[in-house]
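Sorry to interrupt, but I need a hand with the structure work. It will help me judge whether the discrete encoding reads sensibly. Write everything out right here, beneath this request:
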Amino acid sequence: MEANGVATNGKHINGVNGHTNGQSANITKKNNYPEFSLGEKLTEEQIQFFEQNGFIHFKNFIPKELVSQLLRETERIQNEWVSNDYKSINGVPIKYGTDIDGKKIVQRFAFVNQHSPLFADLLKDNRLQALFEFIGTEDCRIGETEKDGLVFNHYINTEESNYSQLGWHTDALRDVFQGQKIMPMLNVGIHMDTSTTDNGGLRIIPGTHNQGLAGLLFKKFYFLSHKPDKKEVGLNVEPGDLTVHDGRLWHRVARSPFVGEQSRRRVMYVPIITGKFQPRTENSKPLFYQRLLSLTNK
């Protein structure tokens, strides 16, 4: 059956068999798709759901206390980067902006795991390796030194913010610009704030990971298009939740209709990748799509 365009097998049972009941005192909207719990091995239902839809949502991956520690650590890293006026990390442009109090902030960190043992240790969680089964090849790995590493996004709506939304895209564009075969990839998100669909946030189009090459390249104008799609699904998330989407899936981040503190949304992403090992170093140059990303989505 389908719920708002999301294919399910009709056997979702709240609270058992690797599921959660989706209830929380801090979130007022319930998702129209099943939510799961991530263990050290995926269940058949989790695999089937992901294969059909190209995304999955796991509740309470990390505790709220760790979320708070990670947020404090980003403040420390941010102060260092702002003080030293860093322009890029391993060739990936840093996106700066202004907070509600006028303070200069980093709105997109790349390779944050290379600047903090706390973030580096997070990527060693064995449950992340369970996600490799969604791809199923022996060369799966967490992109600690590849792509953009562990990325920390800080979305906020202010007059001087440079990062309040992110236009339609797939994560396969990098392979295209590098003239390479599009390789299987997962983008794993760990959410730092409560965010409901009323406050912007992640929008995905279920099933588009199974489209052909033409749909992958031309379905939307990459990063420039923000128009809602009639088939899109929004995700309601809480601090500590983990989401996964296939790199070929069309998705965007909608701008919050609110201004100021209520619009604040922070989320980390790390890729799970396959294929040739391609680490980035301090001598790496920005790719075209990274330059485009740094100039759009304000």
About this structure: Helices lie at 44-53, 64-84, 117-122, 126-130, 173-177, 213-218, 288-295. The longest helix spans residues 64-84. Residues 73 and 117 are 10 Å apart (CA to CA).
